[in-house]
Amino acid sequence: MMENQTDILLLEGLKVTPQSSVPTFVLLLIIYIFIMVSHLGLVLLIVMERSLHQPMYLLFCNMSLNDAFGASTIIPPILIDLFAVATERYISYAHCVVQAFCAHFHASTSHTVLMAMTFDRYMAICNPLRYTTVMTHRMVVLLSMVAWGVSLLLVAILVALSVRLSRCRRLVSNPFCDNASLFKLSCDSVLINNIYGLTYTILLLGSSLGSFLLTYIRIAAVCLSGRNKVLNGRALQTCASHLVVYAIMFMSGIIIITLHRFPQLSDQRKLASMLFHVVPPALNAITYGLQIKVVRQKILLRFQTKTTPLF
User: Fold this and answer.
1) Is 264 exposed, middle or buried (0-12, 13-18, 19+ CB in 10 A)?
2) How many CB atoms neighbour CB 186 within 10 A?
3) Residues in contact with 58: Cβ distance below 8 Å, sequence separation at least 6, in sequence order
4) What would you measure as the largest C-alpha separation in the chain, in angstroms?
5) What is the pLDDT of residues 259-306, one digit of tens each?
6) Is 241 exposed, middle or buried (0-12, 13-18, 19+ CB in 10 A)?
7) Which of 42, 81, 160, 228 is deepest in the core (most CB within 10 A)?
8) In angstroms, what CA-CA distances link 286 with 108, 123, 142, 249, 280?
9) What is the DSSP letter of 51?
10) CB-based contact 242:118 (threshold 8 Å)
11) 231-248: per-residue pLDDT in tens?
12) DSSP 8-class letter at 185
């Protein structure tokens, strides 16, 4: 009986004043359009340009698709609810579960895809003679499948543990649904959820951070000991972009986890959780895509070709 009453949930949504609703809507809409155009444009460019059919760029397509997916999961529903009355922001429980799954799937895949890209950079710089034999198209497909598959499995278990709980509440105190929102709807014990959630976070962040530190310490050692300054410069350029992307994503996640420990900062945590799905995807296209010289040149060449007069 209680669960039937909680099939329709009340979503807190994004807290903004009536005066700031329109500017917030316009800003989020512009950011969303930029994310979609830039990431899908980069994927299209890589697919169309045969010279970019290299492991590094093909793996980058995974990041672009994941960022577009993550932004589409969070931003459009927030835009729709932005002008709704706070007491009328309804969402079905099934929709809430799907949104929570997609939000965590995007966050997890961001880490696993970057780990796959880290392996590619390690092979390219530390084992250049074996790079072409190891990083084949089959290996790129395998790394991509593992990155998405591991995230799918981890998040499926995470959300399933919350769905199994009975529900006694209907208020989702967040701008969007996530796993914490789901199990907070229950009055049952959530000990198992907390244990798995902590294990999941430590496993994901630990393996992600560990692989990055070990790989880039090794890359730094190779570059410092190398005598070819031109090759070292190119290696550092691509690695620097990779590191910036990872740092933005990792720090965004750490801020959310830290703010969870301070209940008095719940509004700041809610804003940070939304920005995690907005800011990194917006910056990734600029930091990683446009910072790489080859990609930048191809984009400029495409524009120049289209704007060159016929006569």
Assistant:
1) exposed
2) 17
3) 46, 137, 140, 144
4) 75
5) 766 777 777 777 777 778 888 888 887 876 665 666 666 666 666 665
6) buried
7) 42
8) 21, 25, 27, 14, 10
9) G
10) yes
11) 566 666 666 766 777 777
12) T
Q: Which residues contact 113 (CB under 8 A, 6 or more apart)?
A: 59, 62, 63, 66, 144, 147, 148
Q: Which two tokens stand for residue 196?
A: 């798995």
The Cα–Cα gap between 269 and 176 comes to 12
- A 10 A CB-CB count for 275 gives 15
pLDDT higher than threshold 90 for residue 13: no
Here the tokens at position 102 are: 């997609």
**DSSP conformational letter for 289:** I
Beta-carbon count within 10 A of 126 CB: 16
**Radius of gyration from C-alpha coordinates of the chain:** 22
Place of tokens 């530390």: 126
Q: pLDDT for 170-188, tens place per residue?
A: 888 888 898 988 988 988 8
Phi, psi of 165 (to 5 degrees): -75, 145
The pLDDT-based confidence of 161 (bands split at 50, 70, 90) is: very high
State how far the Cα of 71 lies from the Cα of 29, in Å rounded to an integer: 11
**Kind plus residue range of the DSSP H or E element containing 71:** helix 55-81
Each residue of 194-217: pLDDT tens digit? Answer: 899 989 989 998 898 888 888 888
Give the pLDDT of residue 310.
46
- CB 182, CB 159: distance < 8 Å: yes
Q: Provide the strand spans (E) within the chain.
A: 8-11, 90-92, 171-172
Angstrom distance (rounded) from CA 155 to CA 159: 6
Q: Which of 184, 128, 120, 125 is nearest to 146 (CA)?
A: 120
Q: For 176, left (φ over 0), alpha (ψ -120 to 50), or beta?
A: beta
* pLDDT exceeds 90 at position 148: yes
- β 90-92/8-11 pair status: antiparallel
